[in-house]
Amino acid sequence: MTAKTLKLDEIRIDGGTQSRAAVNEEAVADYAEHADELPPLSVFFDGAHYWLADGFHRWHALRRTGRTEAACEVRKGTQTDARMYAVSKQANGAHDDRGMRRTNADKRRCVEMALAMVPEWSDRDIAEHVGVGHAFVSKLRAEVSTVDTCEATPRKRKGRDGKMYPAKPKRGKASRSEPVPSPAGTDRDKAPEADSTSASGAGSTRGGSDNPLKVWLRYATEFADAWDGLLNTERGAFAKATKKQLVELKKELAREIQSAQRVIERVKQQLEST
């Protein structure tokens, strides 16, 4: 990575590297007022073009103030490299004091971009790269899958070791019509857009007239049951996994179950107080 000052007109912003769902005009205005304090833009250079990967709001703010140049951190890479960096948690987690957190729409766009670029990656690998829950990735994969890009159940998936493995059929207790990875299709996937487990503000219901808290309780219970089922019935599917991988998996599943159980307790308490 090289620190370099570039002319704004040199920096390409038309390469599909914008990971935000939309430009936030309020953020642009705020950045323009503090233009001298803004961190460098993140740019990728492929030998011919400078592709903006992170800093679109800063770019627009600098342009609005009449500036013609910007401090940049330049990395060697292609347009695709810039897009992969743009959707990464590394880019979206580097915030200054006025940094703009990703909205649910932003997270969705990041996942959709990643699915289009690396459909062979597993849900967990994409989730790790983008910085979201793997169930959220699985949900969007099923929604945006096409014959030519990201099949809901591709023939092969890239594992954490970088090797390609045959994709296994979806399992679990989920009863939704869409494909799910383990226990997807439960409470966290059905929450409005985000992969949150909070019971507050829940307004989505299946029957339309149900008490929202009761609906959340049903979601959370199904989620806990699904993970509990995996703990007890899916061990055969991981027969070839190393002992360390199995230990890590068990710990992750246990954490997910505890998280769901905490949601259940919170919802029960709120139901008792109503």
Report on the architecture of this protein.
This protein is of the alpha/beta class and 274 residues long. The strands form two sheets. Strands 1-5-3-4-2 form a five-stranded mixed sheet, sandwiched between helices. The protein is built from ten helices and seven strands. The protein starts with a strand and ends with a helix. Residues 147-153, 169-209 and 233-238 have low confidence and may be disordered.
Provide a concise account of the structure shown:
The chain is an alpha/beta fold. Helix content is 44%, strand content 12%.
Distance linking N and C termini: 57 Å
Number of helices: 10
What's the average pLDDT? 74
How many beta strands in the DSSP annotation? Answer: 7
- Enumerate the strands of the largest sheet in spatial order, edge to edge or round the barrel: 1-5-3-4-2
Describe the global form.
globular
What is the ordering of alpha helices and beta strands? Answer: EEHEEHEHHHHHEEHHH
What about the largest sheet? 5 strands, mixed
Q: Beta-sheet strand percentage?
A: 5-15%
Which residues sit in consecutive blocks of at least 5 with pLDDT less than 50? 147-153, 169-209, 233-238
What is the helical fraction, as a range of percent?
40-55%
* Assembly status: single chain
Q: Give the domain tally.
A: 3
> Structural class of the helices, strands and pairings?
alpha/beta
Radius of gyration over C-alpha positions, nearest whole angstrom:
22 Å
